[in-house]
Amino acid sequence: MAEFTPDPAFITTSAAVGDLALCHIRLQLDARYPWLVLIPRQAGLREIEDLSAADRIALIEETVRAGSAVRAVAEALGLSVDKLNVGALGNVTPQLHVHVLGRRAGDPAWPGPVWGHSAGDSFNPATLATAVAAARIALGL
Amino acid sequence: MAEFTPDPAFITTSAAVGDLALCHIRLQLDARYPWLVLIPRQAGLREIEDLSAADRIALIEETVRAGSAVRAVAEALGLSVDKLNVGALGNVTPQLHVHVLGRRAGDPAWPGPVWGHSAGDSFNPATLATAVAAARIALGL
């Protein structure tokens, strides 16, 4: 059985947060949004239907936990969250992954989707460390 | 307890397909994509976290069933599906709902998201009936 590794595209666009039972969790490198990416840690997945029924339950539970962590990251960054956005697209990077991010009215892409909207704002190192720490605490990592 | 009714925005943009155990299922009125919308049939929901744990399991199972139905709708419409896209956004219509749709390389919005991309192409009545019938059969409705 092939070993899981995150697609290289995630390494350049996000920072590792840690691993839950199913998913590898990453923080998207865009300081404009509190934004986590969940990547189920199994090789060869493309669609949610490729997961077992038990792993699909884990995926939705980890998605909800990621929503709480996104709120914690937002608080640490001084951002508000008016609406969570959850998306599994994969048109560019087909390895199965779920975006969970916080939106606020008037944010750069509001009310459209963030995916493909515009280049991200990079974090300064201290703010990135704050965001990752907030995510880790919220996820119990 | 308030009664569930779909937000009026869904009535103008989609056609009723039927009800599963948790969700009211609708077909998006855009002939360019095989596209279903799942609306959990409970009043007052905005986020996935607002569902009980049992209903979250139902939501992800109905999402997977909707993916199969999207493939059936695509076949009925003569469209291919290279990738499923699943999204719960709600920035415009905050009532909790999940989009499940089929994407093909080179479709009008490819590889970006469909939400907010461009106005839909309307169905002719016979094609719409074909699409709804394919969705109902695939969902066991």
Query: Which ranges of chain A are low-confidence, i.e. pLDDT below 50, for 5 or more consecutive residues?
Result: none
What's the average pLDDT of chain A? 97
Q: Going across the biggest sheet of chain A, name each strand in turn.
A: 1-2-3-5-4
Number of strands of chain A: 5
The global form of chain A is globular
Largest sheet of chain A: 5 strands, antiparallel
Rg value of chain A: 14 Å
Number of helices of chain A: 3
Write up what this structure looks like:
Two copies of one chain form a homodimer. Chain A is an alpha+beta fold and 141 residues long. Chain A is 33% helix and 21% strand. Chain A is built from three helices and five strands. In chain A, helix 2 (53-77) crosses helix 3 (125-139). Chain A is globular and about 40 Å long. The two termini of chain A are 27 Å apart. The mean pLDDT of chain A is 97. Chain A binds chain B through residues 46-49, 53, 56-57, 59-61, 63-64, 67-68, 83-92, 94, 103, 110-113, 115-116, and chain B through 46-49, 53, 56-57, 59-61, 63-64, 67-68, 83-92, 94, 103, 110-113, 115-116. Strand 4 (83-88) of chain A pairs antiparallel with strand 4 of chain B, so a sheet runs across the interface.
Keywords:
3 helices, alpha+beta, globular, homodimer, 141 residues
Question: What is the secondary structure topology, with strand pairs?
Answer:
Two copies of one chain form a homodimer.
Chain A: H1 8-13, E1 14-19, E2 23-28, E3 35-40, H2 53-77, E4 83-88, E5 98-103, H3 125-139
